[in-house]
Amino acid sequence: MAPPAIAEAGPDTRRVVPMSVMKLSDDAADLPEKFVKSLGERPTIAHNDYCKEIPVISLKGIESESERARIVAEVGYACAEWGIFQIVDHGVPAELMKSMMENTLGFFKLPLDEKVKYATMPGGFPVGYASGSHRADDDILDWRELMVHRCLPKAVRENDISIWPEKPETYRKTLVEYSDTMGDLVTSLLGLISESLGLPTSYIKNAVGGDDAEQKILFNYYPQCPQPDMTLGLRSHTDYGTITVLQQDDVGGLQAYKEDRDKWVTVEPIPGALVINLGDQIQILSNAKYCSVEHQAVVNSNQTRLSLVTFANPSSTSQMGPAPELLSEENPAKYRSYTMKEYLPICFAKKTKKHYDALVI
Q1: Which CATH number does the domain housing residue 314 bear?
Q2: 184: in domain
Q3: Residue 188 lies in a domain
Q4: How far is Cα 247 from Cα 100, in angstroms, rounded to an integer?
Q5: Domain membership flag for residue 334
Q6: What's the domain count of the chain?
Q7: Predicted TM-score (pTM) of this structure
């Protein structure tokens, strides 16, 4: 099936919406070839075959000394053994989580010609709406539609907010509140992770740029798929930044790779919970004590799925590398130091399967 004609633009300005996955979901009886993954990339575990072992940590009592000690210990275990965990009693208002979900769904349900007004442009930072991929040159696409925003530092947000969707009417206002709330939560989480490594509470926050650290928020819409066993909603990867906070609906699909078992596991949707996964910078800063978890999203033929993803990334000028306080003769540095703006170019140049392996000494 040919992709729908959605934009009248020349090759240099063509927006990155190679085909509407939502339209394909409605019209296609078979999976279009552009979405068919190679045999080794196809899902092996069902979207609703949930793993009950992934840690779920309550942040209740985080301000009390005794409870904080428990929380720090549980976070440390989860970071070392899994690289992914869920949190409850996290303080993010349920009404805000619900409102952001509703506004996000409202955007994706808009007519295609309305969404395309906010589509990603080739070149530069991939912000805006895309379908299948935010890259115009992707050979194989993912079964999703997406929307990306740069939200922090606030100067970046103030520059970008004029190109955020105006529909639904409460979209912009809700996203600003959601961004600020997630920023506060990330600060708390980085404090817990710092303490679990035996470092001062503010150590990681300061290391990644303090108030200049970057926040990117991604919304994913995964339509029903005619042949979910042959594709992915989002291909396997690690996140290049610090940590990621994910809010998902009640439809399963997020999977993490448990390396010591050579097995993919599906993260169970828990009402009100948020999923936390570590990015490459925590693995490197911890000198591989903690792991940047490989993850992917699978789809299904019966239900759509929605996820809201907050990426907390270092500022581009942050000097990254293993924390000197964690190094010794018995534990020498496993990675070299670099500035954050050098990280992805180094990784792409060396073409390692996992980005952080490009920095191994």
Answers
A1: 2.60.120.330
A2: yes
A3: yes
A4: 10
A5: no
A6: 1
A7: 0.94
CB proximity list for 361: less than 8 A, separation 6 or greater: 333, 334, 335, 336
Q: What is the 3-state secondary structure (H, E, C) of the chain?
A: CCCCCCCCCCCCCCCCCCCCHHHHHHHCCCCCHHHCCCHHHCCCCCCCCEECCCCEEECCCCCCHHHHHHHHHHHHHHHHHCCEEEEECCCCCHHHHHHHHHHHHHHHCCCHHHHHHHECCCCCCCCEEEECECCCCCCCCCCCEEEEEEEECHHHHHHHHHHCCCCCCCHHHHHHHHHHHHHHHHHHHHHHHHHHCCCCCCHHHHHCCHHHCEEEEEEEEECCCCCHHHCCCEEEECCCCCEEEEEECCCCCEEEEEHHHCEEEEECCCCCCEEEEECHHHHHHCCCCCCCCCEEECCCCCCCEEEEEEEEECCCCCEECCCHHHCCCCCCCCECCEEHHHHHHHHHHHCCCCHHHHHEC
- One pLDDT digit (tens) per residue for the chain, 361 residues: 333 333 333 333 456 565 799 999 999 889 999 999 999 999 999 999 999 999 999 999 999 999 999 999 999 999 999 999 999 999 999 999 999 999 999 999 999 999 999 988 766 567 899 999 877 677 889 999 999 999 999 999 999 999 999 999 999 999 999 999 999 999 999 999 999 999 999 999 999 999 999 999 999 999 999 999 999 999 999 999 999 999 999 999 999 999 999 999 999 999 999 999 999 999 999 999 999 999 999 999 999 999 999 999 999 999 999 999 999 999 999 999 999 999 999 999 998 889 999 999 9
As given in the structure block, the two tokens for residue 115 are: 């969404």
What does the block give as tokens for 84? 């992914």
Give the domain extent around 219. Answer: 21-323
* C-alpha–C-alpha distance, residues 330 and 48, integer Å: 43
Is 61 domain-assigned? Answer: yes
